[in-house]
Design a protein that fits this description.
Elements: H1 2-10, H2 12-46, E1 57-58, H3 68-74, E2 77-78, H4 80-113, H5 123-137
Antiparallel strand pairs: 1-2
């Protein structure tokens, strides 16, 4: 069973998937920072200093806090501002992945269009071709 596991891990696809997951996780953090630290403050400034991270609707009667973290401690809240931030994260990630897949597909199409150079014939075929050409000249 250990040998089968080693063979499974050694396959290229599994290692590629592992690298992709690790890079994807790091890339997700970059996009989250982009949205939280750059895009949402700009959007908030455009709309008059609004902080989307604290937009919520209290679902419990005892929620009187003005910040999302404090409101969550008091009871159930519908945190739609946080949802908007996560939705923007998703849309940015989806757009970037779409552009990457589009670029890879474009590169694959270029490879398919380029005709492969004909392979050199085997030595015996080349010799027979030379003999044929010599006989035609006589």
């Amino acid at each position: 069973m250990l040998n089968e596991f080693k063979a499974f891990i050694a396959k290229g696809n599994v290692m590629d998937l592992a690298v992709g997951v690790i890079i994807g996780g790091a890339f997700g953090l970059i996009v989250s920072s982009l949205v939280d630290d750059i895009i949402m403050p700009i959007v908030g400034a455009i709309f008059g200093g609004i902080d989307f991270s604290n937009f919520f609707i209290p679902l419990a009667s005892g929620v009187t806090a003005t910040t999302l973290d404090a409101a969550r401690e008091q009871g159930a809240v519908l945190a739609y501002g946080n949802f908007l931030t996560v939705l923007i994260n998703f849309l940015i990630l989806a757009w970037i992945i779409f552009m990457m897949v589009k670029a890879v597909n474009s590169m694959r199409r270029e490879e398919e269009v380029a005709p492969a150079a004909p392979a050199a014939p085997p030595a015996d075929i080349a010799l027979l071709t030379d003999i044929r050409d010599l006989l035609k000249k006589q």
